[in-house]
């Protein structure tokens, strides 16, 4: 009887240490999410998870949708901008940043038939961003302020219009907006269709030395499933290494994955340009992330900055990356 009881306790202990049999990960069809897109396309996550764990990929268009999914308990991990991640964390959504994914990789472009030669030229114009409170929205509000301008919701005359990045080419074609601050590859896609570059990724902020995408996880899920968390991070690092090893193969994987999500296929020239503007890697420049939290607060999306000791935990990815 004691032997049976001991065996039962051991089985229950093993089950409680690793509860999940499915892991759900959220992702966008953006080059700033390249590590995750490549890891999905090349089955690098699944390889690290093994046969006993099912990977379920959920596709999203912006950070607001990701936050809603985390709040509803519908996803376990996601690639998302630091702005939405901070705001969700400060609203009590149980998430934590466990790795960086990309730096820079966003540009300001204008329609080819609209004369905008600099940020001051945005006065009286409509500018698209992925969603309200997105990393690009926060960045746009910062560069407007530096140029002495304000958005209309702060008493100014620059109208900020939330549009999903994959829908921006159509918005430009229909003249719904005059310009956009958007992640790659959609900036390069718009340029290919006649848009003009107003600010490069380096001119947006800090010479491009700022985090555009992070990998976050549900804190409860990660605590209950440490092996799955490690496998996701390993797959993430595998995706980064795949991109760094072969730009050509990475372009093919990205093209296929973006097409699967959006039914739009960026060509080789677009993806080459998009990747050249985006630094894929797990590192996060902490000083600029802390400054970014202040920009987020100044933009009115948060009353304070997050407690970084709770918001950020890079210890495991640092260990695995060695």
Structure description:
The protein has 322 residues and is an alpha/beta fold. The chain has 2 domains: 197 residues, Periplasmic binding protein-like II (D-Maltodextrin-Binding Protein, domain 2, 3-Layer(aba) Sandwich); 103 residues, Periplasmic binding protein-like II (D-Maltodextrin-Binding Protein, domain 2), CATH 3.40.190.10. 47% of the residues lie in helices and 18% in strands. The chain is built from 16 helices and 11 strands. It has a 6-stranded mixed sheet, with helices on both faces. Helix 6 links the parallel strand 6 and strand 7. Helix 8 crosses helix 13. The longest helix is centred in the last third of the chain and has 20 residues. The N terminus is likely disordered.
pLDDT average, as an integer? 93
If strands are numbered along the chain, what order do they take across the biggest sheet?
2-1-3-10-4-11
Structural class computed from helices and strand pairing: alpha/beta
Q: Which regions contain 5 or more consecutive residues with pLDDT less than 50?
A: 1-16
What number of domains? 2
What is the string of SSEs from the N terminus onward? Answer: HEHHEHEHEEEHEHEHEHEHHHHEHHH
Short description:
The chain is of the alpha/beta class and 322 residues long. The chain has helices spanning 2-17, 34-41, 44-49, 63-71, 82-90, 135-146, 168-173, 186-192, 201-204, 219-224, 226-245, 247-262, 268-276, 286-298, 308-311, 315-321; strands at 22-27, 54-59, 77-80, 95-104, 106-110, 126-129, 159-162, 179-183, 196-199, 211-218, 278-280.
């Amino acid at each position: 009887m004691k032997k049976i009881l001991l065996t039962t306790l051991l089985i229950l202990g093993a089950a409680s240490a690793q509860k999940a049999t499915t892991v759900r990960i959220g992702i966008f069809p953006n080059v700033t999410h390249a590590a995750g897109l490549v890891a999905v396309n090349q089955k690098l996550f699944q390889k690290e998870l093994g046969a006993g764990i099912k990977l379920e990929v959920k596709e999203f268009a912006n950070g607001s949708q990701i936050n809603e999914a985390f709040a509803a308990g519908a996803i376990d991990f996601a690639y998302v901008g630091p702005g939405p991640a901070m705001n969700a964390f400060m609203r009590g959504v149980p998430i934590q940043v466990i790795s960086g994914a990309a730096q820079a990789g966003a540009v300001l472009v204008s329609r080819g038939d609209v004369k905008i030669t600099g940020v001051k030229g945005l006065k009286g114009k409509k500018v698209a961003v992925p969603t309200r409170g997105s990393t690009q929205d926060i960045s746009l509000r910062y560069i407007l302020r530096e140029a002495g301008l304000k958005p209309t919701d702060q008493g100014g005359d620059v109208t900020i219009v939330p549009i999903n990045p994959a829908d921006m080419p159509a918005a430009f074609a229909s003249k719904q907006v005059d310009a956009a601050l958007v992640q790659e590859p959609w900036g390069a896609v718009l340029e290919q269709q006649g848009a003009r570059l107003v600010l490069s990724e380096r001119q947006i902020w800090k010479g491009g030395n700022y985090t555009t995408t992070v990998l976050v996880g549900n804190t409860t899920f990660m605590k209950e499933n440490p092996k799955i968390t490690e496998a996701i991070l390993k797959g993430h690092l595998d995706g980064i290494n795949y991109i760094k090893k072969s730009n050509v193969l990475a372009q093919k994987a990205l093209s296929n994955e973006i097409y699967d999500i959006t039914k739009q296929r960026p060509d080789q020239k677009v993806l080459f340009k998009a990747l050249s503007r985006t630094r894929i890697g797990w590192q996060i420049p902490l000083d600029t992330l802390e400054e970014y939290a202040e920009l987020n607060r100044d933009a009115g999306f948060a009353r304070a900055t997050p407690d970084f000791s709770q918001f950020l935990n890079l210890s495991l990815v640092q260990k695995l990356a060695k």
